[in-house]
Structure formats: structure tokens, C-alpha cells
């Protein structure tokens, strides 16, 4: 319900925004052959469900689509032998029916063609404007049943675009569709961060001619000033329970890390180092904060308790590591490392200490994990223009997201919606 409400209310400025274009390269270590049938009567809806599902599965890199199976509803008798002979290990079928109240009854089944059995299925009543969301939810179910990890197709992303002298904070579906503008400004907007429940975004705006941290409710459009102190106010990051944010402030001299309640009250200082401490990020369990500090002479990533106290250095490979992002399971750290003059995305397995370079580009910034931990989105530069990229955590699947005109930067991947 919350997701549906958000999609129906988040219409600040719709039209006229260029959709993200997604290009995919590479495949996962294992691809599952799957056939997606056209849903019976799906032409009644404005969105073709089967096409959206196919696009989702293709974009993931972990499915091989078997084409040419035609129209099959969830009640149709299936020739499993024919599908097996064509190499399909799974089949997606379904139907669409218009209801008297204007909604659509969408029914779906996922079939195991090897065992000739049903793996999953459900029915959803969807409004016309939420048909894409319904398709993404079906894709999520397919991904979870066949890969064993919750799908993230029905999630949202936020990012900042710059065209001419105008900056826009935009919200889009994970596939780049359904772009909405949450904020327009002639001054820079940076560091957007989703609230854990997906209803708010924190960000830094320079509209007051200095960096100020705001929280914006995406449903009511209400904005709250969270940090507007002397000097710089930057790098907001939500606590997992959504009650407060970690921020970086220079109000007392060098930039240090503080926490503040989501309504702007209750400011508390966490670090008191002789260096610059910034870019805080809570761990998924809320017990730790990862952050950037130059206390050792160069920028490196540290971890401390979320209540402050002693900090432990985490990164040792290379002399310049910034922008920490921790995976949802707490096992992997993503960050940007400068080596040989290149700014590239790296990951660190926190248990083994094993590093992996994830990108081939050279001007990377702002990594963000998908809520299921299987992908990392980041900003980079292509042809002197900002663009977004996505890489699977095994490094095998890569996506490039661009807009027709202008720069696109500062991505943040939203949470699972309830």
C-alpha cells in the first residue's frame, strides 16, 4: 500500500523529463533458461506485463530468455516436453482481466518445466498506473524463487541531473522508467539518501548559498531543515530505524561527524579527531558507522560504534579511499579508490580483506548498494558527461544508464517497499 501511495502521489512535475536509457553487458556466472509467455489479454492494459518482466530478467544478467512461446494463461495446459526440448527450465504464464472498478486482475504462475510443477504464483488487483509496479513485483518473485535472493526490480532510485544551470533531484523506477522531479534548483544538490521506509529523501542543497541538509517527504512534499549550522553541513546518512541521521558538520572547526534527529533536534557530536571526518554510513544493524577520515595522513575509511568512541581503520590498499558504502548483509564495503590517477569503484570483503576492482571507468563516485546486496550503482563520466552505471557484486553484469541531455550523478538506491 505504501508503495502504491508513493507512486500515485509523487507527481511533483511529471512530463518532459528524459527517461534513463539502460544498456546491459555481461552475464552472471550462471544463467537460468526461462520462457516468459505473453499474458492472456494483457493488451487490455496500457503496459505489456510480459515485456516488462522480460526486460527485468534480461537486465539482471542471470536469466537466458527463451523466445517464441506465444500466449499462455495460468489456466492453460502446458506442453512441458516441448519447453524442455527448447532448453527452458522455467516458464512464466499469466492473464489480465479488467475489473468493474477500473482496476486489473493480474494472475501469474511460475512453472518448473523440468519437474512439470508450479513453483510460485499469485494474483494482484492493480490500478492502470501501477501496472509497471505489478510487473516488477512478478519479476521480484521470479528472481527470488530461482536465484534464492529477494529481487529489487520494484524499488526506486534517486539521482541528481544537471541541464544548463538547473539541478534536479529525480526519482525513478529501478529500470529508469517513471521519472519524477522532487526538487528543482539553480544551485547544486548533492548527497541524496533514502530513508529506510522509502518515503523521504535527505540531501544537501546550496540554495541558501551554503550547504544545508534537508529531509523531504516524497508524499507530502514537506521539507525539514535538519542541519543549518555555521560552516558546512553535509553527507546525510540515515540510521536503519529512520529516527536520526549522521551528518558531517564544520560548526566547531574541522569537519566532524554528528548525529541529529530526523526533525533537526538532538544534535550529538561523535568524533573529535585532529583530522577531517566525513561521509558517515550506518551499518545495516545500526551498531557501527563507517566514515572517511584523513587522520592517518591521507583519506581512508574507518569504523566506529554508532555512539562514537575509538575508530578502527578498515582500508589499507592504496593511499586514497573515500565514500564508504556497506552492503545490506554487512559483509562487503564498497568505496572509491584513487590509484594511478584513476578514481575507480572497489569492494572489500571485510572478513578476508580481499579487494576487488569493480569498474573499468576512471572517474567514479557515489556508490550505492541495491537493497538485496546483489548490485552496486555508481556515478561515472562518459564523454565528459556524468552517467550512472550498475555492476553486479561478482563483477560480471554491467549496466550503463544515461539521459539524452545533461549530466546525471549522485545516485542512491532506495529500499525495499512494503
TrEMBL record:
Family annotation (InterPro entries): 6-blade_b-propeller_TolB-like, Tol-Pal_TolB, TolB_N, WD40
Signal peptide region: 1-18
Protein's UniProt keywords contain Cell cycle: yes
Gene3D superfamilies from the UniProt entry: TolB, C-terminal domain (2.120.10.30), TolB, N-terminal domain (3.40.50.10070)
UniProt domain TolB N-terminal: residue ranges: 20-117
Primary subcellular site in the record, as a coarse category: periplasm
GO biological process, one term: protein import
Keywords annotated in UniProt: Cell cycle, Cell division, Periplasm, Signal
Pfam family, one: TolB_N
Cellular component GO terms held in the UniProt record: periplasmic space
Subunit structure: The Tol-Pal system is composed of five core proteins: the inner membrane proteins TolA, TolQ and TolR, the periplasmic protein TolB and the outer membrane protein Pal. They form a network linking the inner and outer membranes and the peptidoglycan layer.
Biological role: Part of the Tol-Pal system, which plays a role in outer membrane invagination during cell division and is important for maintaining outer membrane integrity.
Entry similarity comment: Belongs to the TolB family.
PANTHER family: PROTEIN TOLB, PROTEIN TOLB HOMOLOG
Protein name as catalogued: Tol-Pal system protein TolB
Gene this protein is translated from: tolB
Amino acid at each position: 500500500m505504501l508503495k502504491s501511495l508513493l507512486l500515485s502521489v509523487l507527481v511533483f512535475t511529471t512530463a518532459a523529463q528524459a527517461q534513463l536509457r539502460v544498456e546491459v553487458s555481461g552475464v552472471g556466472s550462471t544463467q537460468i533458461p526461462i520462457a516468459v509467455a505473453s499474458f492472456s489479454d494483457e493488451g487490455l492494459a496500457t503496459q505489456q506485463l510480459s515485456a516488462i518482466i522480460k526486460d527485468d530478467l534480461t537486465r539482471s544478467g542471470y536469466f537466458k530468455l527463451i523466445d517464441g512461446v506465444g500466449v499462455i494463461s495460468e489456466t492453460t495446459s502446458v506442453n512441458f516436453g516441448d519447453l524442455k526440448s527448447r532448453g527452458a527450465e522455467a516458464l512464466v504464464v499469466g492473464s489480465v482481466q479488467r475489473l468493474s472498478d477500473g482496476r486489473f486482475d493480474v494472475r501469474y504462475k511460475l512453472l518448473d518445466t523440468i519437474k512439470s510443477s508450479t513453483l510460485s504464483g499469485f494474483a494482484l488487483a492493480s490500478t492502470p498506473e501501477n501496472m509497471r509496479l505489478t510487473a516488477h513485483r512478478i519479476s521480484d518473485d521470479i528472481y527470488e524463487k530461482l536465484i534464492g535472493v529477494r529481487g529489487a526490480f520494484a524499488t526506486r532510485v534517486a539521482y541528481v541531473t544537471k541541464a544548463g544551470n538547473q539541478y534536479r533531484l529525480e526519482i525513478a523506477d529501478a529500470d529508469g522508467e517513471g521519472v519524477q522531479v522532487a526538487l528543482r534548483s539553480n544551485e547544486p544538490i548533492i548527497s541524496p539518501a533514502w530513508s529506510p521506509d522509502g518515503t523521504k529523501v535527505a540531501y544537501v542543497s546550496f540554495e541558501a548559498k551554503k550547504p544545508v541538509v534537508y529531509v523531504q517527504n516524497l508524499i507530502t512534499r514537506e521539507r525539514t531543515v535538519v542541519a543549518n549550522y555555521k560552516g558546512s553541513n553535509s553527507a546525510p546518512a540515515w540510521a536503519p530505524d529512520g529516527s536520526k541521521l549522521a551528518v558531517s558538520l564544520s560548526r566547531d572547526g574541522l569537519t566532524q561527524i554528528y548525529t541529529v534527529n530526523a526533525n533537526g533536534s538532538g544534535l550529538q557530536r561523535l568524533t573529535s579527531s585532529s583530522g577531517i571526518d566525513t561521509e558517515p554510513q550506518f551499518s545495516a544493524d545500526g551498531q557501527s558507522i563507517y566514515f572517511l577520515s584523513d587522520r592517518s595522513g591521507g583519506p581512508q575509511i574507518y569504523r566506529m560504534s554508532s555512539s562514537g568512541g575509538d575508530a578502527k581503520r578498515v582500508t589499507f590498499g592504496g593511499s586514497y579511499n573515500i565514500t564508504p558504502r556497506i552492503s545490506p548483509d554487512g559483509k562487503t564495503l564498497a568505496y572509491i579508490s584513487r590509484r594511478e590517477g584513476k578514481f575507480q569503484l572497489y569492494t572489500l570483503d571485510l572478513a578476508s580483506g580481499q579487494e576487488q576492482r569493480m569498474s573499468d571507468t576512471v572517474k567514479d563516485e557515489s556508490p550505492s548498494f541495491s537493497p538485496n546486496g546483489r548490485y552496486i550503482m555508481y556515478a561515472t563520466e562518459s564523454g565528459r558527461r556524468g552517467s550512472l552505471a550498475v555492476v553486479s557484486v561478482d563483477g560480471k553484469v554491467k549496466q550503463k544508464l544515461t539521459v539524452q541531455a545533461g549530466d546525471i550523478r549522485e545516485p542512491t538506491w532506495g529500499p525495499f517497499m512494503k
